[in-house]
Amino acid sequence: MNISLPTNLILIATVLTLSASGAEPAAAPTAPTDVSLVSAAVPLAATSSSAAAPIPPPSSAPATPSQNVTVNLINRLVQRGLLPKEDADELIKQAENDAVVARAQAQADAESAAAQAVAQSQVQNGPDPVGANDDAVRVTYVPEVVKAQIRDQIKDEVMNQAREENWAQPRKLPAWVTRFRFMGDVRVRYEGDFFPSGNDNSGAFPNFNAINTGSPFDVTGTQFPSQLNVDKDRHRFRLRLRLGAEADLGNGFTVGLRIATGENNTPTSTNQSLGLANQAQGGNFSKYAIWLDRGYLKWEAGGEPGRDFSLTLGRFDNPFFRTSELTWDDDLGFDGVAMQGRYEVVRGLTPFAVAGAFPVFNTDFNFSSNQPAKFKSSDKYLYGGQIGAEWRINKDLSAKAAVAYYYFDDVAGKLSRPFIPLSASDQGNTDDTRPSFAQKGNSYMALRRIIPSPLNNFGASNQFQYFGLVTPFHELNVAGQIDYKHFEPIVATLYGEWTKNLAFDRSRADMLAVNNRTSGGTGAFDGGDNAWIAGLKLGSVSFQKLWDWNLGVNYRRIESDAVVDGFNDSDFGLGGTNLKGYTVFGNLALNQNVWLGLRWMSANQIAGPPFRADVLQFDVNGKF
User: Fold this and answer.
1) What's the mean pLDDT in 526-549?
2) Closest among 465, 444, 447 to 577, alpha carbons compared
3) Predicted pLDDT of residue 29
4) Which of 99, 120, 151 is the last residue in one of the domains?
5) Residue 155 lies in a domain
6) What is the total count of domains within the chain?
7) Using CA atoms, how far apart are residues 64 and 72, in angstroms rounded to an integer?
8) Residue range 273-291: average pLDDT?
9) What is the pTM of this model?
10) Best exposed site among 252, 327, 422, 619 by fewest CB in 10 Å?
11) Which of 64, 99, 134 is the C-terminal boundary of a domain?
12) What angle do CA 395, 400, 405 make, to 5 degrees?
């Protein structure tokens, strides 16, 4: 009996301790279940307090089982009469309260430990960035060595997969394929050509190009020669398609070619009017011709923006710097040889030079074709030279200017030896001095000196004529532009160009010209030898993205014999010289390779009978 008492006390003390700590005992200590052990507890309870109430008998109603072992153990003590019901309730309540306090203390200890860990991390890695989100997830510091190992592991896995799936190795192409570069563009255009009222449609505008490229015209006949349209509006849809390629031959050598559309072989346009039937092509959905537009061999040394030299042979782009189409149309190709060079002498200042020789016309090998004895050649050449400089004044301002001299050899018409043409097929010895292509505006003279005789009714019939240029052309040209790039990619460009024909002979024109007179060929000669243009452009120089744009305006005045009318702008005033007026234009990009263009040109005649032409062009352009 004396041994069992301490064991019971230990059991009750263990239950109370576990209840206070909120812990779940793994297993209750084994206690004797002898009745004497339980009864021995009664004197102990009685002697512990003089006021202690007697212990009630065991409860007949068992307590509801709990998930807490300590609570169940207290309830069992009550059932067996070892503990009063009131004391048991108080013990359970105290145990629950102690468990809440213990849980709160455990949570506080955990938060304190987390705070100490964060502080340690800040000491090692530095404080959090200013303004960092308090709710942000903090990632434990990873050493660089571990990062490198992770990268290497991922790289090895990717490369192994690439080798297995055979997409890491590029496909090998033949060497010759990598030497080629292809390029091309397409333009679809609506063009409206409008003639305001008041133009002279009485026969004052002969089409000298049509006369000179066909059979000679009998000036004594009763019919008008071929005439230019000056009074009926036209609406045209036009296509321009160009496809080219360049091939690197090594050691600085390049070969290039380009093919293009064109309703004829005019040098100033590659437009094909859709539905136009001429020269056995076009109309009723029939096919259109393709022309050789470029073909050249080029050698280049340096190849840097500030240091370069090139020599080009064949048919190639215009090698001369220009700011407009005042002298040369943009579509014009040059035949012959050209040398170009540039060298930056000081930072930001790069002089350049261009020189070349270009055959304009070569006499037919069998000229004259209907005579046994042939005529002397009338070959025509252009010799050109230009010097200029590019100056980068500062990061916002740059300028470029050049002076050129264009010497046309033997392009003026010459009077023939006196002869009597018996039919339109008979040729004069200077027939080849007439232009092989012309637009309009230059002053023209009759080439043939026809002897009056009974065979031609003493000059009253069979006066078959061709027409040549009255004056030689030795053109001095000055071109320049200033670019302001402070708001780049928006660039403002102010540009201008001036040309004067130093070989213009007014007295010769007064004597020989059959046009450009105040009264349609009978009044005083009214031509001139100067041309100039001034303009402003604003916007993107090149299109890089959707909605890039540019716009501009210019005004020009081109007197009759300032430049050769067969080589300058083919759109303003429907081409040629003897025109003045303005142009406004704008372009809008749909992406870097596709853009829309709109242009309005209004031109008036300078000399001779009244003539006015307005041209509207809307373009859809694409390139690659």
Assistant:
1) 96
2) 444
3) 43
4) 99
5) no
6) 2
7) 9
8) 85
9) 0.73
10) 422
11) 99
12) 170
